[in-house]
TrEMBL record:
Gene3D superfamilies: Periplasmic binding protein-like II. It is found in: Cell envelope. Its main location: other. This is Transporter substrate-binding domain-containing protein. It comes from Thermoactinomyces mirandus. It holds the Pfam family SBP_bac_3.
Length: 276
């Protein structure tokens, strides 16, 4: 009887040992993604964006043949500086952070504002441009000269953006749009008195698309846009910051910025005024 009990116990111990050893073996063989694995091991810098935010990132043709825009050009310049091949990809904005956390790409270069909430999920590089909520009106409009003149006026904004919250501080008469371009196009028609949108988007429409609009006063807010990376990629963050510093120093950044906006969008409004 004692021998049978001993045999059963021995069998159980052996079984447990086998399970533990199997677990350890599987763990040791499981691929663990080290810092910057996608970039450093494959030689390709894959960066994500929505592809729906002209002029920052968008498809060059209606068929969506190629991603282009300010974000894309900055990403390519950074990749070149780091000795890597650029690979821009378009993904839905609502899942873009989740994709980064799952390491589907190395970084997000998609005009993402640096916020405390986002910092809990990702790390950011130094800002690669500065913008903010800007008031735009029709070029011939003389009744709106500052934010105080927005009271009671009809203001256009894009749906589900922070610009609506800003607009509601001045007026309850809000018209919502699906795109910034459509909203800005409505200014000369008189459907809306003003549009509040990203400063750089409006400046692009003025300088490159010849919209008959103008910006009013200084931005209502000032936001810094950063390149988002995985929380664990400290080495990649350092490399990106170094590359960003270099393309700013050698004039590459300013060349790209002037291509789209006829000005350096890394500078703040205060910087521009002091320069003038």
């Amino acid at each position: 009887m004692k021998k049978e009990v001993f045999a059963i116990r021995l069998a159980r111990i052996t079984f447990v040992c086998i399970l533990v050893l199997s677990f350890l073996a599987l763990t040791a063989c499981s691929p663990v993604k080290p810092e910057g694995q996608l970039t450093l091991q494959r030689g390709t810098f894959t960066f994500a964006m929505s592809g729906l935010y002209k002029p920052f990132n968008y498809h060059e043709t209606e068929k969506g043949s190629r991603l282009t825009g300010f974000d894309v050009d900055i990403g390519k310049a950074l990749a070149k500086e780091m000795g890597l091949r650029p690979n821009p990809v378009a993904v839905p904005w609502e899942t873009i952070i989740a994709g980064l956390q799952m390491r589907k790409y190395d970084a997000i270069i998609g005009s993402m504002g640096i916020t405390n909430k986002r910092k809990k999920a990702v790390n950011f590089t130094d800002p690669y441009y500065r913008s903010g909520a800007q008031i735009f009106v029709a070029k011939e409009n003389l009744s709106i000269r500052s934010a105080d003149d927005l009271k009671g006026k009809t203001i256009g904004v894009v749906k589900a953006t922070t610009f609506k919250d800003v607009a509601l501080e001045y007026s309850s008469d809000i018209v919502e749009y699906t795109s910034d371009i459509t909203a800005l196009q409505d200014l000369p028609t008189g459907r809306v008195d003003a549009v509040i949108t990203d400063r750089a988007v409006g400046l692009y429409a003025m300088s490159k698309m010849n919209f008959l609009i103008k910006d009013i006063d200084t931005p209502l807010t000032e936001d810094e846009m950063g390149i988002a990376i995985h929380k664990g990629d400290r080495e990649l963050r350092q490399k990106l910051n170094q590359a960003l510093e270099q393309i700013i120093k050698d004039g590459t950044y300013e060349k790209i910025s002037y291509r789209y906006f006829n000005r350096n969008i890394l500078r703040t409004t205060t910087d521009e005024n002091n320069k003038e």
